[in-house]
């Protein structure tokens, strides 16, 4: 399965078109039927939504705010240039070694997030990203001069079960839903906005 968040206005934006093209090639390479790929972006126009349906892709009916569970099935999350809160919500909604080990994320580098944020901000506002850093493997996509603004800071992330099981048991005990009340740079469109 595949879930794609935050693709953007591909009808207007060349970078979003390249990201859509890469997604379609990736689905083909991984032999994921288009009908098993669900997308959501609140910015999609009616025309863009129709184009995605014509490609055989599914549109999620509502804004999940990144809180999509893997439900026991291996799931690729394609989230190029999404906000930190979206990644944090995704991790929270799958917060167990069993669920995280079935999840692959193509999106912003977690190591880059860690390097750019003060550790106290990362731990306060994006605690699930902070807690999983020792349990994730990450490989950056190769850079190409033509697509620097399209896939910059993009990595493939996966969560090996053995690494997750090495994390202290206390890491798994705290499962409070993220709220982001003190977050100054919230990069998420919430339900109803």
Q: What report would you give on this structure?
A:
This is SRR1L protein. Residues 1-37 form the signal peptide. Belongs to the SRR1 family. InterPro entries: SRR1-like, SRR1L. Residues 1-158 form the SRR1-like domain. With 193 residues, the chain is an alpha/beta fold. The protein has a single domain, classed as Rossmann fold, CATH 3.40.50. Helix content is 39%, strand content 16%. It is built from ten helices and seven strands. Strands 3-2-1-4-5-7-6 form a seven-stranded mixed β-sheet. β1, α1 (14-30) and β2 form a beta-alpha-beta unit. The longest helix has 17 residues, at 14-30. It is globular. 33% of the residues are buried. The model has no long low-confidence stretch (mean pLDDT 92).
In short:
With 193 residues, the protein is of the alpha/beta class. Helices cover 39% and strands 16% of the residues. Residues 1-37 form the signal peptide.
Question: What are the key terms here?
Answer:
SRR1L, 193 residues, alpha/beta, Rossmann fold, signal, SRR1-like, single chain, seven-stranded mixed β-sheet
Main pleated sheet = 7 strands, mixed
The overall pLDDT, averaged over residues, is 92
What count of helical segments does DSSP give?
A: 10
Instruction: Provide the low-confidence segments as ranges.
Output: none
CATH topology: Rossmann fold
Largest beta sheet: what is the strand line-up?
A: 3-2-1-4-5-7-6
Q: What's the count of strands?
A: 7
The computed structural class is alpha/beta
Shape: globular
The assigned CATH architecture is: 3-Layer(aba) Sandwich
The arrangement of helices and strands along the chain is EHEHEEHHEHHHEHEHH
**End-to-end Cα distance:** 28 Å
Q: Which percent band covers the strand fraction?
A: 15-25%
- What is the CATH top level name? Alpha Beta
Number of domains: 1
Helix share of residues? 25-40%
Roughly how many Å is the radius of gyration? Answer: 16 Å
